[in-house]
Amino acid sequence: MDFHPSRHTLLLVGSANGEFTLWEIGLRERLVSKPFKIWDMQACSAQFQSVLAKDSSMPINRVTWSPDGDLIGVAFAKHLIHLYAYQQPNEARQVLEIEAHSGGVNDIAFSRPNKQLCVVTCGDDKLIRVWDMHGQKIYSFEGHEAPVYSICPHHKETIQFIFSTSIDGKIKAWLYDNAGSRVDYDAPGKWCTTMLYSADGTRLFSCGTSKEGDSHLVEWNESEGSIKRTYSGFRKKASGVVQGVVQFDTAQNHILAAGEDNQIKFWDVDNTNMLTFIDADGGLPGLPRLRFNKEGNLLAVTTVDNGFKILANSDGLRSLRAFGNRPFEAFRSPYEASAMKVSGAPVVAGISPNIGRMDNLDRNSPAKPSPILNGADPASRSIDIKPRISEEKPDKAKPWELMEVLNPQQFRVATLPETPDQTSKVVRLLYTNSGVGLLALGSNAIQRLWKWNRNEQNPSGKATASVVPQHWQPNSGLVMANDIGETPPEESVPCIALSKNDSYVMSACGGKVSLFNMMTFKVMTTFMPPPPASTFLAFHPQDNNIIAIGMEDSTIHIYNVRVDEVKIRLKGHQKRITGLAFSNSLHILVSSGADAQLCVW
User: Fold this and answer.
1) Which percentage of the chain shows pLDDT scores above 70?
2) How many structural domains are present in the chain?
């Protein structure tokens, strides 16, 4: 299973009958279902064709999203990988079929060496291979003496590399060249091991099982190739009883989770003792597979009846409730969150969602905090903690202080490199939320993006006037050009908004509102054709699919991108809308208008 990198409730599931499905957890809907079929039998090797003739079953070993969420990679237990292009909300188009390995393809991942998107695979033939987006093999890494079980592409600063593990317990690392493996470590247990980096890319973990059935979860000191800490909490197995390999995942840079003993076990990354374990109301297999979403507030776990359950902490529950169609129960006792369960045939079909009570889960972590760790009584904290606005005494409040800067030495100025449309003036300017880029909307309705690179002069890679940023464009050469409609540009009111995770930008310049993908600059969709024209835009801070749009005619539309529908129209202003701001903690929207009024909704 794998959650979408930016649409945090979208789950990709591969199953043993070769079918992959795509689920919108918030709506409990299956959006896509693709049974296995070979696209071009003529292109397949004679060896593969004879394997298929003997046994036509095609289990999926691994499914994964590309970093921008535009592509789906599927690795099969025999020879093949498939790549699909995902188009919201429910289309998956065939892109590439590659006979990647002789035997099973055990893992698939995307990587970006030299800023070029590639697919990395490994297989029973002891090889790791790198493919470009035309299906051409760029690299083939040899050196493992046993089938390669898993891969973990990563980068540190500008160095791109791949960790790989084989079933003889060897860990190797490869640069994108033909110079062979750079390291040779032994994985604990010396059998099947998976490696993962924390979300911020700074810490490396591995989890695996020995042939005797003992499981190991460790953190590595990468530079030395030594084990930094070993996490306890796995049960010693009776010798000779090996059900399979423990699966694990990590969330929010501070939680580890692994499936064992029909349970999910949780650790804090800085503490080797297990935090807690839950059985998720039962129905889990001996070694459940599990996957966090990228925000770490939803956890998908497989069930014995060929289905999966979704566990949520309170942030996850809030994101699910934003869909507003069916209740996701949050129970009243502390730390309880809810589960959605989907089950069916060998593929998760025939939904029978039932809301199940989950074991105690805390608001901010997928695991129950131990009183010792937090130094407080856990019973005193409830799942639905409402943020309080402190009512400070007037004398404590700082007045708005204006500061005049008179000394020219206090200024730094950087002029951004020119772009082809230099004649247009800048009408809107935004920093990206991560602080590494600058986005400008020009009077010609074209958006440009500049990014600061991480280097010796600017080690943080954040915006600074000491270093000039680079004008950035995808390899395709696409530009983000808005629809301009009938209104002359000088008369239109330009507006622009950026999603919280910097994945999407939407803007309008008198015409329709366009939603762009920030990685590819592709137009994802357009909506709201004038009249009236849009004059201000705002993303909902917790759900990129909910957008507030202020209009020329003084109304505000709350629009759902996913279903392409205006959900609510707000009327209260007399003139065009000039500003919109959501408050996370107060659950309100504040609007301003050219009528000099502020409204709270």
Assistant:
1) 85
2) 3
Cβ-in-10-Å burial (0-12, 13-18, 19+) of 494 comes to: buried
Q: How far apart are CA 222 and CA 156, in angstroms?
A: 11
pLDDT of residue 365: 35
Are residues 152 and 77 part of one domain? Answer: no
CA dist list (Å): 173 to 142, 163, 167, 178, 184 = 11, 4, 15, 12, 7
Q: What CATH number has the domain bearing residue 140?
A: 2.130.10.10
Q: Are residues 170 and 311 in the same domain?
A: yes
Q: Is residue 264 domain-shared with residue 306, that is, in the same domain?
A: yes
Mean pLDDT of 476-482: 92
35-92 pLDDT, tens digit each: 999 999 999 999 999 999 999 899 999 999 999 999 999 999 999 999 999 998 889 9
Rounded to an integer, what distance in angstroms lies between the CA atom of residue 120 and that of residue 151?
Answer: 8
One domain, residues 136 and 169:
yes
User: What pLDDT score does 318 carry?
Assistant: 86
Check residue 553 and give its pLDDT.
95
Q: How far apart are CA 548 and CA 559, in angstroms?
A: 6
Q: Does residue 32 register a pLDDT over 90?
A: yes
Confidence of residue 238 (pLDDT cuts 50, 70, 90): low
Indicate the helix (H) or strand (E) that contains 590. Answer: strand 588-593
Instruction: Name the 3-class secondary structure at 51.
Output: helix
5 with 124, same domain: the answer is no
Task: Give the integer Cα–Cα distance in Å for 435 and 502.
Answer: 10
> Would 224 be classed as within a structural domain?
yes
Select from 290, 324, 358 the last residue of a domain. Answer: 324
- Highest mean pLDDT among 209-213, 287-291, 376-380, 473-477 belongs to 287-291
Place of tokens 């599931």: 13
Cα 577 to Cα 129: distance, rounded to the nearest angstrom: 54
Question: What would the 3-class secondary structure string for 521-565 be?
Answer: CCEEEEECCCCCCEEEEEEECCEEEEEEEEECCCCEEEEECCCCE
Instruction: Give yes or no: residues 23 and 123 share one domain.
Output: no
In a domain, 190, yes or no: yes
- Domain assignment of residue 405, yes or no: no
Is residue 308 scored above 60 in pLDDT?
yes
* Parent domain of 572: 421-600
Q: Could you tell me if 62 and 126 lie in one domain? A: no
Tokens of 151: 């891969």
Identify the burial level of 590 via C-beta atoms within 10 angstroms of its C-beta, where 0-12 means exposed, 13-18 middle and 19 or more buried: middle
pLDDT of 566 strictly over 60: yes
- DSSP assignment of 219-263 equals EEETTTTEEEEEE--PPPPPTT------EEEEETTTEEEEEETTE
pLDDT digits (tens, 9 = 90+) for 378-437: 333 222 333 333 333 334 444 556 666 667 777 778 888 877 766 788 999 999 998 999
Specify whether 73 is located in the same domain as 110: no
Of 89, 101, 107, 165, the closest CA to residue 127 belongs to 101
Is 304 within a domain? yes
The span from the CA of 573 to the CA of 535, in Å, is 13
Cβ proximity of 132 and 120 under 8 Å: no
**Longest Cα–Cα distance in the chain:** 83
Last residue of a domain, one of 96, 119, 152: 96
